[in-house]
Each structure stands twice: as structure tokens, then as C-alpha cells.
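Archive transcription. Copying these from loose printouts into the bound notebook so they stop getting lost. Printout 1 of 2:
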Amino acid sequence: QVSRGLRTPRLPVWLCSVAGRHSVLFGTDGRLLSDWRAERVFHLYLYNGQREQARTARLTIDTHSHHWEEAPREEPCADPRSPGNSRPSMEMAIRTKWAGATVSWNGTDPFF
């Protein structure tokens, strides 16, 4: 029998498989599960258990930002599919839940 805590988690947790690597994406704010207003700007933590990850990455998700508020690119009209303009796979996975959100890696080099 599954315990009530597993059926209804108290904190948001996602098990991810991105680019063939498994990881855990989780938040420490339980309001993300029940209050849509908590989804404006919030933090998620990413852990993949690989040797190259020295510590859990803290990501800041902003769901009300706009693409024109992001840091300017060298070529503003460049094709977003080109290698120089691509986004990390984990950011794209996060955007399947929060479309259009900006993701800040807070100084950590994106490893996905």
C-alpha cells in the first residue's frame, strides 16, 4: 500500500530523464503544489548524482518575465535553432511546465 505522503507530496519533486541522464528537480516551497501565485518567481534545485556536479544547482524560475528582458545576444535576429543560441535541455524541460519562463542558473554552468 502506498502511503498518503507518496500519493500527495508535501513538496514538489520531479524525476527527470533529459538527454539520457536521470536527475531530480525539486522545490522546498510546498505552495508550488497548491497556490498558483507562488509560481511567479521561485527556486528549484537540480541534482543528478554525477561526479562533475559538485553541489546541487539552485535554479531561479521567473514565469512572468519576457524574452526581451533576457540578456541581449550578439545577433538579435539569429535563428534560435542554431548551436550558439540553443538553451540547455533542462531549461526546455522546465518550460514544458512553465511555458515562456526564464531560468537562471545563478552562476552554475548549465550541465544539461
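Printout 2 of 2:
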Amino acid sequence: SPPGLLLLTSFLLHVEEGRASPTRLVCDNRLIQKYIGEAKDMEKRAGQCQALPALSCPTVLPLVDFSLQQWKSKSNEIKRREILCDLALLVGAVAGAQGQVTQECGARQLSQLYRHANSFILLLQTFSWEAGPWEPGCSPRSMEQTHITGIFLTYRQLVQGKLRFFFHDLAKDLCK
């Protein structure tokens, strides 16, 4: 079963009737640890693919490093929007790389990464503290990358960093 489907199913199983609140998903720390493990596995498998070519057209990736002190000073809504921006740029980078990678192993890993990142976008869109639809017109800090493994590294850092801390912050409010 595709991992993105697992994430969505986990979410749907934990939605409280009457209002979409993925509280239990955030409150169960084992789930984010599972997603971090999956990100590490994807990065490792991509690194083991034989003869992955450099991308002829560089892809643009979000810079996902952050200062914990600055992060703590942001509202959950700002954090959510920042992660959504990073994920949107990452999904675009994966899609661009997919068009350039014909090698089966690399293409398979990129497809899995695409599904995972999109699942997180769907999940984060369910959390909203401000009225109005999410606008993808954001411009996170970014860099160009020609190595496919850099895409997986960025995803792992995003899941291990901002996403994990965001879930941790939500858990403090929702899991009392």
C-alpha cells in the first residue's frame, strides 16, 4: 500500500466526527518518528540507485534550516504556512526531477517522495487558524540543486526539523 495512502488513512481514522481535527495523529509521537524513518529510508535507497545522472535542468529546493529560537516565536499558523510553502516548492522540484530521470530506481524513489510530500500538504491544509484558502503564492528561501540525492536530503531535513517541531508544538496545545 502506498505510504501516502497510509498517512491519509491514519489521518482519516483519527478525524473526530463533525469537525476535521487530526488531533490524535499529532498526539501520537510514534507517527512522526515513523515518517522520519521513512524519509531516511527513501534518502538511503535513492543514494543506492546506480548511476543517477545529474539533473540537466537544476531544480529549486527550499532551504529548510531554521533557528529554533525564531521558530518558537512564530504562531502555529505562520509555521504551518511556512511548511506548506516549503512542501509546495519541494513537490515542484520532485515533479521537475521526475521529468528528467528515466532510470527505474531513481524514478521509483522520486515517485514515492512525491506521494509522501503531497500527503503532508493535504494533512497541513486541514489545520487552519485563519479563514480563507491557502494561497501557494509564497516564496521561501531556496537554492538550486542538480543532484537528485539533494532532493531527498531536503525532504528528510524538513520532516526531521520543521514538521517534527510543528507537530510537537501542536501536541502541546491539543494533547492535554
